[in-house]
Amino acid sequence: MRTHRQSGPTLADVARRAGVSTPTVSRVLGGKVPVSAAKRDAVNAAIAELGYRPDPAARALARGQRTMVGVIAHNTTRFGYAATLEGIQRAAAERGLSVAIAVVESDSDADIDRAVDVLLAQPVLGVVAIVFDSMSRRAVERLPHHVLRVAAGGAVDGVASVLFDDDAVGALATQFLLDAGHETVYHLAMPHDPASGGRHAGWRAALERAEVSVPPLVTCTYDPQSAYEAAGGLVSGVRSGEVTAVLCGNDVLALGVYARFADEGVRIPEDVSVVGCDDEQFAVMLRPSLTTVRQDFRAMGARAVELLTDVLPSVGGTGARVADVEFCDAVLVQRGSHRVV
């Protein structure tokens, strides 16, 4: 079996080069325990010669210092994940803390445990899990009981959580279109668990409350190409007047819908109203600009750090005992992609 040696010189390498023990090197680096001038000079010379750089995380752990906020996430590039992470980083920096990120690659126990181990090897004072998916949810549940933890983006049983009410988001956008005079609303949905709540559940509930027909749910991946292909199935309905309003699970899916309708000669909003969710930066640059539901993911990430660093320690609880759920506000932003019928 091949073993992997730590890259760069180690503490033991410095000790061998200086002709001293490893604890002596540690004492020189720590600077708090007296060491003879000869040994100190030998250690410093070996450090300079080898180019040794102390591991700040290991030193902080050894001193009992907790200087980092740990983050567990399955993805760091999609808008919701990235914006939440930005809020976490800003709030941590305001408190003089840095951020350690562990990405959960898959739903396997091995990958989840690996992500947890990566964070616990760092001097983290607690962990924020971005739980837009089952992988991060399982990871936060596998943290040791004593570790402070907060869930951002979804509720986890027994864990302090801050999130958006996705049911309410879906209902808000759907009711807006119904109030504009549309007889029903078609929905291009993101991947979801049919048994759980979410934007699709809010969409359906709003239609059922209004006692109007509930069209078949159109499912997509997170890829706008998937929405482009799915929107092709709505074109004939738009031309016949059956489809007059489309709610997209997020703004990225709306990109695919815009492109397909443009290619088919379908006009927004003259022929069909389109509403998105999230209010990504590009939404205002679309033509027509996209009516959408704005959610402040950055504020959610910042609030998660506030809970982790200020609230949980003050009440003497770990995230496993303090289990309040906070909902962040969502606002419908009216632009040019809808019309009153």
UniProtKB/TrEMBL annotation:
Alphabetical list of Pfam families matching this protein: LacI, Peripla_BP_3
Q: Which UniProt keywords apply?
A: DNA-binding, Transcription, Transcription regulation
The UniProt GO MF terms for this protein read:
DNA-binding transcription factor activity; transcription cis-regulatory region binding
- What residue stretches are annotated with the HTH lacI-type domain? 9-63
The name under which this protein is listed is Transcriptional regulator, LacI family
Organism ancestry: Bacteria, Bacillati, Actinomycetota, Actinomycetes, Micrococcales
